[in-house]
Amino acid sequence: MSLYTLARDGDMEQLTDTAKNSDSAAVRRRAAEMLGDVGDPEDDRTMDVLIYLAREDDEEAVRAAAVDGLDELGGNGLERLIAKETGVDPNAADWAAVRAFAKVLGGASIPEYRMAAANALGRMGDSDAVGPLAKRLDDPDPRVRERACLALGRIGDPRVVGRLQAKLDDDHPAVKAAAADALGTIANGKALAALLDLLDDENVSLRRLAASALGNASSAKPVPKLAGALEDEHDTVRRTAVFSIIELLANAPTKQSHAVRDAVISELQDADDETVLGPLVEILEDATQARQRRNAVWFLGRVSSAEPPKHVLHALIDALDDDDKMTAQFAATSITNLEGLQVESALIELVKDDDASVEARAKAAYALGSVGGDRARETLDAITDSDVDKQIRKRAFASLSKLGGVRQ
């Protein structure tokens, strides 16, 4: 039975047994990761196995995975791990725990304990831990440097941006990635500026991470570099760049939103349709934040070809019934920028659909006034003589007038 199946079925007994006793280091490592993901911090067996692996396993990759598993699991697992050898009270008050873990971080000879201390300090989020963690950015063990970077990102203190920026030149890719992740989390101007050059890094994971983090900016400055990433050879980087470009607009202060919007629309119009349209549709369909859907639907109407692919048209049609009224209105406006028989047909189908909401049918009638022809005119004319909701009839009348009225 696979580890995935054990985790899915909640078979913690078998999963912990596999983590502890498998002959394969790769299996033990992956099992430790899964225990952190799906385990219960109240389950002593899970906690004990992860602590055992962190202390006793012969493979450093397994020990590292167990340390991170304890961090992911929560509870006081990291504290209990370090207490096994150092005597740190796992139930100490926060200020005392920070001081104790900082001491372990700076003085423990076993790197896994320094890793655990870094993780614990990051999870505590206390600013008093910033100094001790910053010192470990030069730890001889790259695994400790990596976790010190991540912990500093968790705390989010902007004072360490310069130190983290220096780690972008670390010899170990995992440390560089952790530093970039931390800078993206801190996300002030200096931190994000440090990530711009990573969009040209030879490591695809770093390029994707930088593209993702730059979506947190509050100005249009990263837009040209992100636009360049739309031509990256890797699809994941291209898609991430689109997501971040949309996020830039969502994050921009009101005073800067027009400048960001102008910069974005200019860049997206020049990009390849296949690169841009798929992620925009994905944002529209999956985003939980209304501001992201609004921006996606607005751009879809401006960067799509006049006769868009079917999946783009269907996404816009579906958005006419979005719970967010502004997203629905933006969808109607975007559709009016399109043309072609399939656009007209889709709108006619919706406006005739008795099962669709009144709001969606009214917006479809509105859009037909801009994109429709003879078929639309006939449909709208029939609606004005029917007993449909007044809102739909009102939109139909307005669209008929835009189309030149009913042909006699």
UniProtKB/TrEMBL annotation:
SUPFAM superfamilies per the UniProt record, alphabetical: ARM repeat (SSF48371)
Transmembrane stretches, start-end: none
InterPro entries, A to Z: ARM-like, ARM-type_fold, Armadillo, PBS_lyase_HEAT
The protein's name in its UniProt record: HEAT repeat domain-containing protein
Taxonomic source organism: Halobaculum marinum
Lineage: Archaea, Methanobacteriati, Methanobacteriota, Stenosarchaea group, Halobacteria
